[in-house]
């Protein structure tokens, strides 16, 4: 695949010859009366990275909002790197996020003959030409340009070369980029961005082996897919200028454009692995909910007043391209975690339970998977108590473990100090009282424990923690009365008695 052109660094002030001009004016030329068709066009890199997921999200939300379609095109022309697994990983990431697409994914590679035909049509129409320059010639051209302090562009020497005698020689096909013109991108996010064609050169559209370049393939595919809006990262802006040259040569309608500012790390540098720029699957394994990641990704580049928390439904309702931010977004894991805890708190226990189960399975936590499966009802009952205490699904699983923890309950290191001879005696006495209560409900258990405290002049705070540790092995858990209610009388008393009798472990 042709290496993507590096975009020129841009700022609104830079208007020198080598830089595109950005007016900052918001221009939105396409009426939304056309059928909205967006596309997500990932290269199958083996994982759906955060930036790609955000691009997919905005394409999807925009299409949903306007009752249009989002298509999926896999840019799989680099056959040396292509694998089915790499492709599946992208689809899995999208599916997990709940981002769906219309129709079968389109393979860019499968369209290569169509791309080549279009290159031939451009050639026949005199809009493109054969270039016979050898690699030595091209290298020399680049070197000369460097020596003169000019950018290394193709100088167009084959444009007017007679080709009669050389027609069969090895050649590429180059587009005739119009000379001394301006290419204007009317971008929904960036405003008007102007490129001078002298900075674009006659770039290659068909390689000497007859394969199309990325630049040509994208234009032909977007046209054939009837894409109305291209929403992608602003690292593609220079590509867009070149693609407009192809659109114009073919007389095709140029889709509306929206180029999203890239995501940066908290330190302001372009987001990379060292900032936690992982694939979405990594976030899934860390226990993030897809709706939290969607919420967070949307906030990375789009805003709706001061709203930080929103559901995917609200996002679709509120979304507009005009509200996309122009400035680079900063990735902040703490914010994601905070949103995740809010989404966990507001999730329905049924859905959360299924997510916990599948995560335990995915991570190979077989004890947790079995424990969850065998205690579905009890866990669903206690989940509303656990939800406000967990930032991730992993924490939620860990908070639910007490339900299926086997005897003797394993005591966390920092919890051990709550168990000593005195508290063990207290636990034994409380167990005796609890044997006789009529209704095993949080209310009645609470009354009995409080009464024990009153009778023995012990504050509830001094009772709760040893009980909690005896029941769960931890210092943090759901409310102890709810815990006992959900464990049931037999299991609760078993745990209390076991702890009361457990001399050796703690003395
Ligand atoms: N395959 C390109 C990428 O992954 C996207 C191309 C496009 O959106 O036009 O960056």
Task: Summarize the structure in words.
- The chain is mainly alpha-helical.
- The protein has a domain at 406-507: Arc Repressor Mutant, subunit A.
- It has 20 helices and 13 strands.
- The protein has helices at 50-65, 84-97, 112-124, 135-147, 214-224, 237-250, 280-285, 290-299, 312-318, 333-346, 349-362, 366-374, 376-386, 393-404, 421-435, 442-456, 460-472, 480-487, 489-501, 503-506; strands spanning 21-22, 37-40, 69-74, 102-107, 128-131, 172-175, 182-187, 191-196, 204-206, 229-233, 256-260, 263-264, 329-330.
- A three-stranded antiparallel sheet has the order 1-8-7, covered by helices on one side.
- Helix 2 (84-97) links the parallel strand 3 and strand 4 (102-107).
- Helix 5 packs across helix 6 and helix 11 (349-362) packs across helix 14 (393-404).
- The longest helix is centred in the first third of the chain and has 16 residues, at 50-65.
- It is elongated.
- Glutamic acid is lined by residues 41-43, 75, 218, 232, 236.
